[in-house]
Design a protein that fits this description.
Length: 160
């Protein structure tokens, strides 16, 4: 297991971070290279979601090591009930050489903190089998068996 270093910076990504996000996404996709067209595609994707998507980058010494996205869903209003929102966690990726050093946990902590600040009623995600234990340790639960081989995890958020 790699040692945990404290010089990790986790921050919300902005429009100027499309290149770093595209590079990580390309690495995630079988080590592909993020050319200029792909960077533009990622920038358009980020802009399209507007304020409903937040993406975080984990960096060390100016190098992007990982990312995670959170998309906000807003429930349709119901008579006599307050509006509610929840978040879908996606695109969690950490460079192979930075894994098992707290990068993923720091990214997920940022997502959970933001969800709490925003008053989300829950966080939801659909992990692959390899990441299941990571999310279970972070407080996510399996609410029931999902059909079709898809796995859906839910992390209830505290109220109050």
């Amino acid at each position: 297991m790699a040692s945990v270093r404290t010089d990790l910076l986790v921050r919300e990504a902005g429009a100027g971070d499309a290149g770093a996000i595209a590079e990580l996404r390309a690495l995630w996709s079988a080590g592909a290279v993020a050319g200029p067209a792909f960077v533009r595609e990622v920038a358009d994707w980020l802009a399209e979601a507007g304020d409903r998507r937040t993406t975080w980058l984990a960096e060390r010494d100016g190098t992007a090591l990982g990312l995670v996205s959170l998309f906000e869903y807003r429930r349709m209003p119901k008579p006599g009930r307050p509006a509610s929102r929840w978040g879908y966690v996606s695109n969690m990726f950490v460079r192979e050489e930075a894994r098992n050093a707290g990068v993923g946990a720091a990214l997920l902590d940022s997502v959970i903190a933001a969800a709490g600040e925003r008053g989300y009623v829950r966080l939801v995600l659909s992990p692959d089998e390899r990441a299941l234990g990571f999310y279970l340790r972070a407080g996510f639960v399996v609410p029931g068996e999902a059909g079709g081989g898809d796995r859906l995890l839910v992390r209830p958020m505290p109220t109050g």
